[in-house]
Design a protein that fits this description.
CATH topology of the domain at 281-347 and 566-740 in chain B: Rossmann fold
CATH architecture of the domain at 281-347 and 566-740 in chain B: 3-Layer(aba) Sandwich
Number of strands of chain A: 5
Radius of gyration of chain B: 29 Å
CATH class of the domain at 281-347 and 566-740 in chain B: Alpha Beta
Structural class of chain A: alpha+beta
Shape of chain A: elongated
Strand order of the largest sheet of chain A: 2-3-5
Oligomer: heterodimer
CATH class of chain A: Alpha Beta
Structural class of chain B: alpha/beta
Number of helices of chain A: 4
Shape of chain B: globular
Helix content of chain A: 25-40%
Order of helices and strands of chain A: HEHEEHEEH
Distance between the termini of chain B: 68 Å
Strand content of chain B: 15-25%
CATH topology of chain A: Alpha-Beta Plaits
Helix content of chain B: 25-40%
Strand order of the largest sheet of chain B: 14-13-26-25-24-15-16
Radius of gyration of chain A: 22 Å
Distance between the termini of chain A: 59 Å
């Protein structure tokens, strides 16, 4: 009767003490390794000219099921279409990735940003903040 | 017209003979794809998408639906496999060199090409795509042409030619290199009506005022009425997040059938102009300071009370607005009459031509006035008397072109100036009469008609009251003399008289040049005599026949402001103030008894009263008399003599700058109410956005003032005010606010009973020419008129309109200019006894010799300061460099 118990405990203890099978992670000292197709916060991409790639076509705002994106287009001096404002409410976002799928110019990509806790019922990222996420990523080192 | 029975896609339908299959299918809600066909335009047959299978007379063939007329027993199939295959390959050709820039194209979402591509489920084509790489043409502030997106459907070419009559654009080159463009690729020189944008099925023509500021699917559309001229076009305001993004037209709505002019389509930027007044302003130590509504209303009522207590209500006055709604104007005059206790209420159009209201009402009662602007479209003869349709009422001009195209109408244009009107009329007669001889001209027509028995005079005598008496007064008139003084040959006059008396409908547009002329009263009376003579002599049995007059008005609601009794002579609905029954009715409804002594007819107008020191307080609603008052600089003097001025407006106009209290009002997009256009058609506005800033609708401000002054007005909405108007004003008796949403209301048909027409009494007048005094120092006569690109404060604050027409100009005859060595575009000074202004010279053949024409709608160029009571003599000289 005691034997099966010991057998069980051995299994538990080997799992518990073996570093290879331990799932506990020392977050935030230790960062999780995310899969390549992880869907975190959508980020605005930067084009070769150093500006946003987005052309304010409004398809992401249209397709968004939780209606967390709002885009205001405008025309600049070179008659290029660009987003004058681009707002994404991370509190509403359900990270479905439809915006990435809809985007005709690959200007919005869901990356690995997932730390989005706030005290408000709103967490609006404006255009610059969304671009900054990409800018930080591009920093050397 | 024969009715044809046919079957389209197994659905039996009927269509009138001559209709093409495409239109027949469309009328019966059967969808046939097509990009080049447009019901308003002539067919072109260029897109090749409306390919259908047609079985007629036992033969099955394939035809283009837009180019094939319906025939009896025809069987049409829209979607057979062969047809779809053909259609797909036609689309492949169209898309082979299309730019496919949908993400950045403003048309995306309402694009015909995109829709058909989606429907046919097209993928990448079989052809190697060749992009065109044409540069985008942005040579003007409102329109943009991207030839890479063009599918050469030819709609814009037809619209420009047929609707606007400009023909500014056409096809260029041949074959693969064909593009749309102007002659020699010069910058676009047209009226900028935007018809090309409205009909373009792709994004080749774009509205630059939109400028990527929204997508079609994001917009909320509100149907409302244009705030500029008195045609009253229906426009669709597209809004997003409570701001107006663009104006579009709808072919199925309103009297304009989707035609608009530059002001209507592109003049919307003033709504969100930073210069709008957003809070009430009160003058403190000589400066206008922002204040709260509570303070402003309190201050205003305190001062009004003070002045009434000191001087009595009679020394207060009010100027109503030709731009505000009927409801605003009704409450305004009610406030002035019942709360302030004054009969000094007026509006600018009545100040300019005080005789007009009673004459228009008389012509309505006698069935001379047109019941609607639609009568232009149904006319067989069009006679524009002193009306510059292209500049003043561009969309009515488009209607006239439609009647010329459809009915082959005759066109007669009588004007002092050789005004521009593009048309393809077969009978196009231009009469450039000498200045001041218009009454002679009309009388000459009457005389010729009587002398040559062009109408049945016996019948005319029976149908009217004082025909023999009037006829003997006309007998003395000599056509030869008239010919000499007008400068028009007798033969031409005879010709015109013949055309006017021809069978068919005749529509006369009586323009601003006639109405605001010193001779206006007798000219309009003569015109009414002419119409009655022809109408009365007509025998109903020979077919429908009617001569009707449209009185052109300046602003969107000039007619309504006068209908609402914002005039000293009438209560709402043209109830005479001296008539006791009308006054009792008004008193009963308003629940107040204004003193009898105030309702007397004054010979002076409001500004003259102020000039004589007989006004102590003035309440101006949505009007800018400092600029618009036609009789010169007096108005500034007059305003200085008034102790307390309240101005209620959307912008800080010249008048508002002189005010003691300025109250911010809303624009047309932010209000509910009704406008009455020049055809006496009442149309309803709908609110598209909430008021900008602290602005309030005018009627609400009037209500607040009245309530504060001890007479609570308890109106909750414009609807309640309109129902009160309906119960007080006989012409508006049948109006219903909810019904207006679906259908406009034409009050003429309620006043004029077709079956029991009133007997006309001819106006016995002595036609005279106006003696024009030409002074030696001031050799030119100043003419003023309307402008296509501008009208009032609204266009002045619309960026695109000021870019299209940045500067006012003085039109000088070529000969005069040559004598004075003035070149086109030189800066010249125009000086009268009163003032002088500096502007650009425009050397043309339009203006007759010895005159100079300056449009008065450029508000920042105060032409009216130059003017005198009658024709103003001016001199022109070139500014020394």
């Amino acid at each position: 009767m005691i034997l099966p118990l010991i057998k069980g405990l051995i299994l538990t203890l080997t799992r518990f003490l073996n570093p290879k099978t331990c799932v506990t992670m020392q977050y935030p000292d230790e960062r999780p390794k995310l899969s390549a197709r992880f869907r975190g916060l959508p980020e605005l991409q930067i084009g070769k000219d150093g500006r946003e790639k987005c052309v304010a076509c409004g398809l992401c705002a249209r397709v968004c099921p939780s209606q967390c994106i709002s885009v205001e287009g405008a025309e600049d001096e070179t008659h290029r279409r660009y987003p004058k404002t681009y707002e994404l409410d991370a509190f509403r976002c359900i990270f479905c990735g439809y915006c990435e799928e809809a985007c005709p110019v690959r200007a919005i990509i869901l990356r690995d940003t997932f730390e989005l806790a706030t005290y408000q019922n709103k967490n609006v990222f404006d255009k610059e903040q969304l671009l900054d996420l990409t800018r930080k990523r591009n920093l050397p080192g | 017209m024969n009715i044809i029975h046919l079957v389209i896609d197994d659905k039996p339908i009927v269509a009138p003979e001559g209709t093409n299959i495409f239109q027949a299918a469309r009328d019966n809600d059967i969808y046939v794809p097509g990009l080049c066909y447009h019901p308003k335009l002539s067919q072109f047959g260029g897109c090749r998408l409306c390919f259908v299978e047609v079985t007629e007379r036992k033969r099955t063939v394939h035809r283009f639906a837009c180019a094939h007329p319906v025939s009896e027993g025809m069987v049409v199939k829209v979607n057979t496999p062969k047809v779809v295959r053909y259609r797909k390959s036609a689309m492949e050709y169209l898309l082979a060199h299309h730019e496919l820039s949908c993400p950045t194209c403003d048309k995306s979402g309402e694009c015909g090409l995109q829709n058909v591509t989606y429907e046919l489920n097209l993928g990448p084509g079989r052809f190697k795509t060749v992009r065109m790489h044409h540069p985008v043409i942005r040579d003007n502030p409102v329109l943009e042409l991207n030839r890479n997106r063009c599918i050469l459907c030819g709609r814009c070419v037809s619209a420009c030619k047929e609707i606007e009559g400009v023909s500014a654009i056409d096809f260029q080159n041949r074959g693969f290199k064909t593009v749309i463009g102007t002659a020699f690729d010069r910058p676009l020189e047209c009226s900028f009506c935007g018809g090309c944008v409205a009909v373009c099925p792709t994004g080749a023509w774009q509205d630059r005022t939109l400028g990527f500021k929204g997508r079609p699917w994001e917009f909320e559309s509100t149907t409302t009425i244009c705030p500029y001229c008195s045609v009253g076009c229906t426009i669709v305001v597209n809004t997003k997040t409570e701001s107006v993004r663009r104006i579009v037209s709808n072919d199925c709505l309103g009297i304009n059938e989707g035609n608009l002019c530059i002001k209507g389509r592109f003049g919307h930027e003033f709504i969100h102009s930073p210069e709008r007044i957003k809070t009430p302003l009160i003058r403190k130590n000589g400066e206008l300071c922002p204040a709260s509504w509570k303070d402003a209303i309190e201050h205003t009522t305190k001062r009004f009370r003070q002045i009434i207590a000191e001087h009595g209500g009679k020394l207060a006055g009010g100027i109503g607005s030709e731009r505000c709604t009927n409801e605003d104007n009704y409450l305004f005059q009610k406030f002035c009459r019942s709360v302030l206790g004054t009969n000094h209420v007026d509006n600018m159009s009545n100040i300019k031509s005080p005789y007009l209201n009673s004459l228009i009402y008389k012509s309505v009662v006698n069935g001379i006035a047109s019941a609607s602007l639609k009568e232009i479209e149904n006319a067989n003869t069009l006679f524009f008397l002193g009306a510059d349709m292209t500049e003043a009422h561009p969309v009515a001009g488009s209607m006239a072109r439609k009647s010329i195209r459809m009915n082959n109408a005759n066109l007669i244009i009588a004007n002092v100036r050789n005004v521009l009107f593009n048309s393809m009329a077969r009978n196009d007669i231009r009469l450039n009469y000498a200045l001041g001889s218009q009454a002679m001209l009309i009388n000459a027509f009457i005389k010729i008609i009587i002398d040559e028995n062009l109408v049945d005079l016996k019948k005319a005598e029976a149908a009217t009251n004082n025909f023999p008496e009037w006829r003997s007064s006309v007998d003395k008139f000599s056509v030869r003399e008239a010919s000499q003084s007008t400068g028009i040959s007798e033969e031409t006059m005879r010709n015109v008289s013949m055309i006017l008396t021809k069978p068919g409908n005749c529509c006369i547009v009586c323009g601003k040049d006639i109405e605001e002329d010193p001779l206006g009263e007798i000219t309009i009376k003569a015109l009414m005599n002419l119409c009655s003579l022809i109408n009365a002599a007509h025998d109903e049995k020979t077919g429908p026949r009617k001569v009707s007059v449209l009185f052109s008005r300046t602003h969107n609601n000039s007619q309504g402001a006068n209908d609402m009794g914002v005039v000293p002579g009438f209560f709402p609905g043209y109830l005479d103030i001296t008539d006791t029954t009308g006054r009792e009715k008004v008193e009963k409804l308003w629940g107040v008894k204004p003193g009898n002594d105030i309702f007397q007819k004054e010979s002076l107008n409001l500004i003259d009263l102020a000039l004589n020191g007989k006004l102590k307080a003035l309440y101006v609603m949505g009007e800018n008399p400092i600029v618009n008052y036609p009789n010169g600089k007096d108005v500034r003097e007059a305003f200085k003599k008034i102790d307390f001025i309240v101005v209620q407006d959307t912008f800080l106009t010249e008048t508002a700058q002189l005010a003691d209290v300025v109250l911010p009002a809303v624009t047309y997009s932010e209000r509910e109410g009704t406008f009455t256009n020049m055809g006496m058609t009442v149309q309803r506005l709908n609110k598209a956005i909430p008021p900008v800033g602290d602005a309030r609708p005018d009627w609400q401000i009037v209500c607040d003032l009245a309530t504060k002054m001890g007479q609570p007005y308890s109106y909750a909405s414009a609807k309640e005010i309109l129902s009160e108007i309906g119960s007080i004003a006989p012409p508006y008796a049948g109006v219903n606010y909810d019904r207006l949403k679906r259908k406009e209301f034409q009050w003429v048909s309620f006043v004029y009973d077709k079956n029991r027409p009133a007997k006309y009494t001819f106006e016995i007048i002595q036609p005279a020419t106006f003696n024009i005094i030409r002074k030696k120092d001031f050799p030119f006569i100043l003419l003023t008129g309307a402008s296509l690109n501008h009208q009032g404060a609204f266009s002045r604050h619309s960026k695109s309109l000021t870019l299209v027409a940045p500067a006012c100009f003085a039109e000088i005859n070529r000969k005069d200019a040559r004598e004075m060595h003035i070149q086109d575009g030189d800066m010249v000074t125009v000086e009268s006894v009163r003032d002088k202004i500096k502007l650009k010279a425009k050397v043309t053949d339009k203006t007759p010799e010895g005159t100079v024409f300056i449009p008065e709608d450029y508000e920042w160029v105060p032409v009216n300061l130059l003017r005198d009571r009658a024709y103003t003599p001016v001199k022109i000289y070139r500014e020394a460099e």
